[in-house]
């Protein structure tokens, strides 16, 4: 126990990113390990959102659309681009992840006439599977569930597109984006990556890996706030052939011409649909400032160290009383999932003790570690509290 205390204290004292925690408005009594579901608010967000309400909305009123707001989806997209390895002009922030998955899947099927199958990670977060099923029905294609390790078994000349997650939301496993992308490409198909659980916490190389399309949440590790809009990546090479199935005026070449027929904008703006959500975009825009000058390799190193230390604490304090589901090697994201038959009750007990993780059915306790604000002390307190509630039965 003393050893764990000393390790936590030393790691926190030597943490090169420790200064960032002060950027976040966190209750010091709470151990918050759910930033992989809803990121914590950076302190600077509240005042800036209030300013936008007071000045841009209150004083400039509708004049703010052309002056400041209409291009916000592309402007904020440019801030996300370096976090996912995308050159400028390829990322836009618009709509929810679910809606964006719909857009990119339909667009990918339309790019592959004659190919009649959509491959989907069978263990995916439900929304991806639901949307893919609907896209299959609407486009007259077939849905093919796949185990990501056995992609070769399902990929072939019938595959139009494969929808994959970089990090599995339940187990925390990190998939090899380079290898899976290469496999999908070898079958002549396109790949869509869901980056919800990886964006902002580990280096991602969309351009270098020639990824076809990608989407991701902004309210998790990117801290954009509840319901902040998702991002979509469409590389330059596919933009001309990207046909948005939700061709709203937001993606029109000249939205304010109010033309009777749809003509897509020439670049990434064609992935937009309707009016942008300015207050949420403002919160996200400000939240992203915390990454200015940050090295994602350092963020990743801390995420691995935090999750590794938490697993050590669990091993030492809980032993065989609980099963660690998340990979112990570096093929993990920034969460640790534990399996226990009373997972739901245990999460309830932890929450009552101000340790916040989450429960995922049927039996998983999930703890997300946000390298920008979590500490090694958080990891130790969470494991110690868990050991107490488990031993109390
Ligand atoms: C992998 C994954 N995709 C998509 C979503 C969410 O989609 P939406 O933002 O539309 O609720 C989540 C989490 O909610 C997720 O974990
Ligand atoms: N998007 C969420 C929401 O609106 C409410 C509660 C949770 C969420 C989540 O993000 C869940 C998350 N994607 C997960 O990995 O379980």
UniProtKB/TrEMBL annotation:
It catalyses: 3-hydroxy-L-kynurenine + H2O = 3-hydroxyanthranilate + L-alanine + H(+); L-kynurenine + H2O = anthranilate + L-alanine + H(+). InterPro entries: Kynureninase (IPR010111), PyrdxlP-dep_Trfase (IPR015424), PyrdxlP-dep_Trfase_major (IPR015421), PyrdxlP-dep_Trfase_small (IPR015422). SUPFAM superfamilies: PLP-dependent transferases (SSF53383). GO terms for molecular function: kynureninase activity; pyridoxal phosphate binding. Its cofactor is pyridoxal 5'-phosphate. GO terms for biological process: anthranilate metabolic process; L-kynurenine catabolic process; L-tryptophan catabolic process to kynurenine; NAD+ biosynthetic process; quinolinate biosynthetic process. It is an enzyme of class 3 (hydrolase). Transmembrane segments: none annotated. One of its GO terms (cellular component) is cytoplasm. Pathway: Amino-acid degradation; L-kynurenine degradation; L-alanine and anthranilate from L-kynurenine: step 1/1; Cofactor biosynthesis; NAD(+) biosynthesis; quinolinate from L-kynurenine: step 2/3. Keywords: Hydrolase, Pyridine nucleotide biosynthesis, Pyridoxal phosphate. The modification N6-(pyridoxal phosphate)lysine is found at residue 220. Pyridoxal 5'-phosphate binds at residues 97-98, 125-128, 194, 197, 219, 249, 275. The keyword Transmembrane does not apply. The keyword Kinase does not apply. It comes from the Bacteria. Signal peptide: none annotated. Catalyzes the cleavage of L-kynurenine (L-Kyn) and L-3-hydroxykynurenine (L-3OHKyn) into anthranilic acid (AA) and 3-hydroxyanthranilic acid (3-OHAA), respectively. Belongs to the kynureninase family. Homodimer. This is Kynureninase. The lineage of its organism: Bacteria, Bacillati, Actinomycetota, Actinomycetes, Streptosporangiales. The gene is kynU.
């Amino acid at each position: 126990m003393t050893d764990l205390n000393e390790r936590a204290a030393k790691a926190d004292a030597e943490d090169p990113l420790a200064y960032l925690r002060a950027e976040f408005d966190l209750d010091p009594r709470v151990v918050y390990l759910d930033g992989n579901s809803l990121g914590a608010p950076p302190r600077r967000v509240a005042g800036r959102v209030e300013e936008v309400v007071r000045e841009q909305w209150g004083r400039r009123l509708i004049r703010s659309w052309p002056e400041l707001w209409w291009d916000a989806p592309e402007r904020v997209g440019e801030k996300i681009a370096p976090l996912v390895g995308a050159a400028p002009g390829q990322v836009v922030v618009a709509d929810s992840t679910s809606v964006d998955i719909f857009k990119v899947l339909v667009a990918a099927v339309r790019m592959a006439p004659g190919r009649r199958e959509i491959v989907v990670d069978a263990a995916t977060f439900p929304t991806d599977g639901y949307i893919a099923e609907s896209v299959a029905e609407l486009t007259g294609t077939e849905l093919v569930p796949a185990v990501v390790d056995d992609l070769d078994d399902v990929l072939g000349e019938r595959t139009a597109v494969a929808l994959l997650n970089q990090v599995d939301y339940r187990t925390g496993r990190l998939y090899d984006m380079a290898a899976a992308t290469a496999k999908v490409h070898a079958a002549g198909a396109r790949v869509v990556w869901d980056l919800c659980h990886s964006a902002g916490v580990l280096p991602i190389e969309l351009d270098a890996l020639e990824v076809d399309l990608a989407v991701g949440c902004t309210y998790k590790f990117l801290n954009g706030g509840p319901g902040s809009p998702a991002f979509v990546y469409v590389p330059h090479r596919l933009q001309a052939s990207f046909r948005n199935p939700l061709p709203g005026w937001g993606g029109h070449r000249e939205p304010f011409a109010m033309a009777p027929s749809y003509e897509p904008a020439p670049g990434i703006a064609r992935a937009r649909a309707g009016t942008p959500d300015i207050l949420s975009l403002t919160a996200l825009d400000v939240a992203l400032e915390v990454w200015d000058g940050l090295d994602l390799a350092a963020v990743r190193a801390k995420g691995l160290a935090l999750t590794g230390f938490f697993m050590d604490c669990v091993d030492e304090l809980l032993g065989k009383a609980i099963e660690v589901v998340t990979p112990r090697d570096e093929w993990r994201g920034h969460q640790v999932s534990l399996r226990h038959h009373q997972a739901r009750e245990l999460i309830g007990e932890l929450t009552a003790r101000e340790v916040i993780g989450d429960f995922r059915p049927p039996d998983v306790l999930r703890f997300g570690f946000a390298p920008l604000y979590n500490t090694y002390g958080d990891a130790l307190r969470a494991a110690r509290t868990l050991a107490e509630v488990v031993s109390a039965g």
